[in-house]
Amino acid sequence: MAGSLRVFLAILVAFLSLIASNTARAQLLDPVKNYCARFDHQSNISEVVIKNTADPHTGSAPPPLSQGTLFQGNSKDDSFYFYGGTTSFANISFPGFVSPATSTYALWGYDTSSTTWSRYDISSKAPIRPSSGAFAEAPEQSLAFYLNGEINNGSAAGLSFAGGTNAFLTGMIVINTADQTARNVSTTEVTGYNPRARAQMQYVPGVGEKGILVLLGGSRKAVGVIDTTDVLNLVPMTEVAVFDVSSLDNSETPSGNWYKQNATAANSPNVPEPRVDFCLINVPATDSSSQNIYMYGGRDSFRYFDDVWVLSLPSFTWTQVFTGLNPRFAHTCHLVGKRTLLTVGGVASVPQKWGHPDTNVSPCDWETKGVGVLDLTTITWGSVYNAHAAAYGVPEKVLATIGGDSAGNATLTAPPAGFADAGLASLFGVKPSSGLRRQSSSAAARRAEIAAPICGVVVLCALVAFCWWWQKQHKRSEEPVYYEKGEASDVTGGARQYTAGGREW
Fold first, then answer.
1. In this structure, what are the phi and psi dihedrals at residue 464, rounded to the nearest 5 degrees?
2. CA 261 to CA 418: how far, in whole Å?
3. For 244-271, how does the pLDDT look when each residue is reduced to its tens digit (9 = 90+)?
């Protein structure tokens, strides 16, 4: 519980310090009095504003950015980390406005013991600072993940995008928070050449050898297309992608293993509407017979949502547990203690009724609160965090879907229509059936071909199998591969391919 509170306080510190912008400009405006989303809670939730101190070695302070993300680091690390983001041009007359900086230092760390920032250069693996990507973290492994996202004229100095336009990025940046290094792995296996922005990704420990990442929702757009749209081609919530974290350690799968699984049935009324800018957290049942991923809020191109859904694994079934009239999007969610969800920040449109749009969108939070508190067992909202709450119990509505009791004992332990892939089934400890496809070495070879030519001799048991493998490889080699091209300033508009040292991005 102490670790969870440390994460929450770290998030508040970083969030409010970035609002302050820098020491001189912060003195012009009181960041508390001028922050419309005040923390109006009862007694046990407080707010802290700190000065945006510079890196003592370079004299540089982190730029004020939006749509980036925070990573907590492992439990022995006194620092947390800020990655990505873009400069907002919504109010360039604001005293704290700073023009876009170079993207060389897209990763920053804040040491909570020394109260200083440090910057890290990972540009050899991630040349352009992304924003609005899907992110997750395995803190016990000191690993942070940032998938796809977008770039625009606020991403870095010198970019010549027209105002309001953007391009989506491929690849997933894997950051080691212990030594502040990174690698860039291909995501073609899961997104093809239509990367996502404003999606969400959740780390689920205890599944497989090193846990999994679950990718949900978002908007997708073809590589190289530059336009004003980032909420158009929404990904259905029936489409769930799962990444095996341990596969990153396998030299035969340099980009790791992705699996795809249908959640419930297509066109089922019990599936949430496609959306962006929502948030996720995961809570396991006491006996780990189910992993329950809570999704809250979000929006599509014309509606805002005030609902809470639970995606239960390994059944891959959706259950709606709450719906209301106070929508929220662009917020973050955090699991604190045993059974409490804290939502931080975000934008709300009030009043709204049943998801219909409101023309008077308010930039301030519902009920004047910057933090929402949800009991994940009783599914009740409140304003007080209960540090002494009982252990998490699976909600009644979820039990109606997956069976069992509040402690677990789920009876639905596989998707109703079965697993789509034997490899995915094995991650959940399910013995593959004869009708399931298994992720094979040819799939790994197809991914490896993105980064380098395939070397060595492949020994097969039969000529038919060899011909099948060769046909797949030959077909794959004819597919286009997109990379970054030159410096960031080369991106000027229109469809374009990107190249930069053979890295996918």
1. -60, -45
2. 9
3. 999 999 988 889 999 999 998 655 678 9
